[in-house]
Amino acid sequence: MVSTEGSFPLGLLRIILEWRKFILRFVMVSTAIAVVVSLLLPKWYKSTTSLLPPKNQGLGGIGGLSTLLREVAPGAAGGLGQSTETYNYLAILNSRRAAEAMINRFDLMKAYGICDSSIETAIEGFHDNLELEVSEEGVIIIGVYDKDSLQASRMTNYMVDVLNQISIELGTKEAGANREFLERRVTENKSALTAAEDTLKRFQEKSGLAVLSSDQTALASSVAEFYARKIKTEIELSILRKTTGEENPFYGQMELERNELSKKLSTFPELGMGAMRLYRDVLIQQKIMEFIIPLYEQARIEEQKDVPVVLVLDKAVPAEKKARPKRMLLVASVFLSSAILAVIIAMASVRFRAFRKEHPVLYGDLAAIFKRGVARHEAVRR
Predict the structure, then answer these.
(1) Do the Cβ atoms of 129 and 146 come closer than 8 Å?
(2) Nearest-CA neighbor of 317 among 131, 151, 103?
(3) 250: closest CA among 102, 13, 32, 65?
(4) What does pTM read for this prediction?
């Protein structure tokens, strides 16, 4: 008996020996069925392609910033890290939009045998046959399964096209938003610069004062430099807020820098209402224009970019051998699990017979209850 404490191994061995014929037949039948099923399962082939994100891309491929963001906030793009950029690419590859593009291009409804034309079922089926992996070096590996090895390679290579198309579109949209923002600032600063120059000119014509002292010019230039740096930092904060959010560590750093510049500006003496103040206003607008015009031109370039955002390291080719089903693994798994299940059934049978022998009255009551339940169920069915 297995119930004796400390005799479990011997009891288990005894059960296996007593039930060896049943266990052997059960395992052989289960394994034979597994072999037949594995031979009937269709062959699936896997094609892979390796992608290398462009160096120093920053957010350019996804967000349309690239050089622009690095010029506005040096270190911000790099601070986000290659992992963030890679996860953006993975998000696109796993997106519903990418899946629908693949389904429509390769008629996967028919390929997957979806009779009810359910797009959700097709998307689920495609994702089941899609594998995405990122190596330690940051290389993105795309793998697609299909029953046709040539079709699998075509689908894998087309995934790269889908990634580039969506990335370029998203980048263009964000670059367009940045361009519009900077365009408004350029227009505002051009108007402010023209107004400041006209005001200074009228003051000089009215007062007859055309030249400032060297000390006055130096002070006005210093104030203008600090004020332009403050405006530059505020523009950087605005772009970062729209692209990466306030949780970006560089956002807090720039906000601190802006506050320090404001404190510094408050220490400068008032310049009065004369030529010195008007001259300072002109310098401020000139400094701002020197900074913002290159950013605006860069945003216009980013908006028109249509170059691929990822580089193909290894193009997908038709697989020579099937990738699944793994018949040996399937048969071995069924063999092991059926052996364990057969032993459990044998042990349960032994315990059941022991219970019937040790508690005949209770067994009889339980058997009667079971019979009444079966009879009631049959009556309901009739």
Answers:
(1) yes
(2) 151
(3) 65
(4) 0.59
